[in-house]
Amino acid sequence: MADIPAKTNRETHPATSRSPVSVVAFLTLFLAVSIVAILALSLGGCNSTPNYPPNLSFPSRTDRLVLKLPTTPPPAQYTGDNIAAELAKLDAADGKTLDPTTIPLASRTALDQSLRDIFGTPAAPTLTADPEANAAAERLGLVADRLAEGSPLFRKQCQQCHNLTGDGRGPAGNTLPAPRDYRRGMFKFTTNGESKPRRSDVLRTLHNGLKGTPMVSYSLLPEAERERLARFVTYLSIRGQTEFDALVALGVGEATDVPAFAKARVKAILAEWERAENAPPFTGLAAVPDDGEPDSATHSEAVRRGYALFTAKADNSCITCHGDFGRKPVLRYDVWGTVAKPAELTERDIFKGGKQPEDVFARIRGGIAAVGMPAHPASELTDRQVWDLVRFVRSLPYPAQLPPDVRAVVYPNP
Amino acid sequence: MASMTESLRPVPRWLHIWAVLAVVATFLLLAVGQMVTSFRAGMADPIWPTEPWYLASNFKLDLGYLIEHSHRIIGFSIGIIVSVLALGLLFGERCSATKWVSVVGVVVLLAGYGDFHGGLIAQRNVLPADVKLPMRGAATTLLGLTLALGATAYGVAIRSRGAAIRLVGVAALAAVMTQGLLGGFRVMLHELVGPDLATIHGIFAQVVFGLLVSLAVLTARSVPELAASRKVRTGAVVLAVLLFVQVVWGALVRHSPTILTQKLHFLTAFLATGIAVWWLMCALYDPAAKSRVRLGAHFLSVLLLVQVYLGVEAWMEKFGQSIPWDLVPITTHNAGIRTLHALIGSGLLATALGLAVRVRQSATAPLPVTETERDIRAEAGSSQPSLVAANASQPGDSTA
């Protein structure tokens, strides 16, 4: 059989005569165009910080207000899949909530207008009530131009979880545990024994994040931007608490002059923030005892003393809620109406508010009022005693750091 | 002796099947990735990098968390699949030196990548501002990439048979690894450039998908020998590029929408639809083109119809409310619509790219027949026309 001449082959099969790398060239071009497009987008300033539309107002509050928590312990940590479902069960469980939509429309409209007059809009936030309140706001740095700087930053960095009003129900925040709801004016991780934080407490949370939660660290942000965010969070908290208090008063018929009531509440809330900001630091933080390395005798003695305090038979002792050192926690309702679970202290990296000795000291001394963790003032525990508890609690996840007699109780089945 | 049809394959059959598997797996990854965006789950777990088995010991019944970790696990699996694909392609190189340099390059690349990730995992408890990039891992990765790409590019330069496919294979592996890093740094650098990196991660996903689709097409059985017309060939490229631009606008509308990006996305949709319809008519009326791309062309037309409808629905869900788009609550319905729209956009781009590659692809030239082999056949008195001889390649031809 004669071979088909190569010339005929090329004539009838022109495809084989094309450059063999044309497809590769096309793909390379595609890849190169893609990379250039991506770089152009990166350098073209798509990292923008959009402000809110000027005609957008803060919406009226329509979710339930928690007036009284149930006295019976909650059956489980989560029984629903979002916070609204959890709150709906409180009334049946001996708690009390208020549906703001049951308040007469005229009163709610008057309240919305008052809030708009005092707090402005998301695009143009302000805080103006009366001269005394304005002065307090200025001392706290809550002035219009600074708030206006924080607003677009909040929209970019925080809103998707904490939502427009700071209610913790943003599009990505419909989870349990829920993002913080600022509107009760209470925060968990403070260093002043109060339920309102210092500015530095909020900044610490922004810088470090909250370990074990979706609240990330914003340590890469410039400090000035974290300051703006902290101010805006404070502003949203004041606004939210004013609205909460006014709605409660309207609900029970106590507020007849809504604008005056709202202004009075703003003044009182600002005073609380100032008191929290100016509260003296815990004395124990100024004089940290040197208990040596975890394997030293001094440290072991401190751990032993801390263990004794932790397990003391008293109403306020730690083991009352952190049963079996946290393995059998006693659930309780927090101020937001959801369920708080005392920390499982034998687990590592459990401290959301920071695991440094100073952080744990602040939690024990100041308590976490929002979740029912009591404070232990100096009249109850000396600084030395609190530091003993700190040594014990921080050693709990590490059996080797516990004295043998303590270890035998904490870890009976090694 | 290998069958005639096998000799018309540019690579062993299992590699083509593997390439198709990579495409299917990547499509699944894209679907989950689009869900991450639709459900705003990009930061559901701020810890990165995580080991592939991380979810087993850190399970949490949270939808966003599970979506995000599923995305990471599938991404890791894709890395393994494409690594095997790249190595399988490289072993097809006939020049021993080139083969082994490129294989060693890929191994070094994978080792460096693993070392880089290990270095970051070791700093997981460190604040992002204090994290130091593992330079040893980075350097090893770059060295491996240079070796692998350099060797395969050399093969293309000397027109080694199948070199172009091998180069695309290594490029695809590098692209998959880059995409993994983009996703990870989106999490790690969230507060600085998170949304922007999310946009770039979304766009680059299309590049990765396109490369893998191209590989699947290039490793398929030979194309019919008649070439499509220049109009069809050029139009296919224009359509693919236009659809890529549309995907870029779409990513911007997804992540950081402005009036301008929405307008661009709408206008490009009109243009792309018009070009697509025109090209489909040209291709299906061109016998040579039709023989190559009939199935793909019909698939493209179906996707186009569905995509236009979904685009309208997605826009209404996201921008048709009375509140800013970033305040619209996420529901299964609106997240599903947006996810589908983005996913079909990826499918459209990949289909167009595959069609463009297919219409421009040279017919596969089988291995050249030696004189000895020809003599043996003549002595055996074979009455069959020698297909091998009939399609004898010209010197220098290679499959691409």
Describe the structure.
The complex is a heterodimer of chains A (414) and B (400). Chain A has 414 residues and is mostly helical. Chain A has 2 domains: 65-278, no CATH class; 283-410, Cytochrome Bc1 Complex, Chain D, domain 2 (Orthogonal Bundle). Chain A has helices spanning 6-12, 22-43, 83-88, 105-119, 131-139, 144-157, 159-162, 199-208, 223-251, 258-278, 283-286, 297-310, 318-321, 357-366, 383-395, 404-410, and strands at residues 65-68, 96-98, 322-323, 328-329, 332-333, 339-340. In chain A, helix 4 (105-119) crosses helix 10. The termini of chain A are far apart. In chain A, 42% of the residues are buried. Chain B is an all-alpha fold. Chain B folds into 2 domains: 1-222; 226-364. Chain B is 74% helix and 0% strand. Chain B contains 14 helices and no strands. Chain B has helices at 4-7, 13-38, 54-57, 63-90, 96-121, 135-157, 163-188, 190-218, 230-255, 259-285, 287-319, 332-360, 371-380, 387-390. The longest helix of chain B has 33 residues, at 287-319. The two termini of chain B are 24 Å apart. Residues 1-6, 365-369 and 384-400 of chain B have low confidence and may be disordered. Chains A and B meet through helix 1, helix 2 and helix 6 of A and helix 7, helix 8, helix 9 and helix 12 of B.
Structural class of chain B: mainly alpha
Question: Please, what is the average pLDDT of chain A?
Answer: 88
For the record, the count of structural domains of chain A works out to 2
β-strand percent of chain A reads under 5%
Compressed to H and E, one letter per element, the order of chain B equals HHHHHHHHHHHHHH
Number of domains of chain B: 2
For the CA atoms, what is the radius of gyration of chain B? 23 Å
Number of strands of chain B: 0
- Tell me the radius of gyration of chain A: 29 Å
How big a fraction of the residues of chain B is strand?
under 5%
Detail the poorly predicted runs of chain B: 1-6, 365-369, 384-400
> What is the overall shape of chain A?
globular
Range of helix content of chain A: 40-55%
DSSP helical segment count of chain A: 16
State the end-to-end distance of chain A.
Answer: 85 Å
Uncertain parts of chain A:
1-20
**Strand segment count of chain A:** 6
Molecular shape of chain B: flat
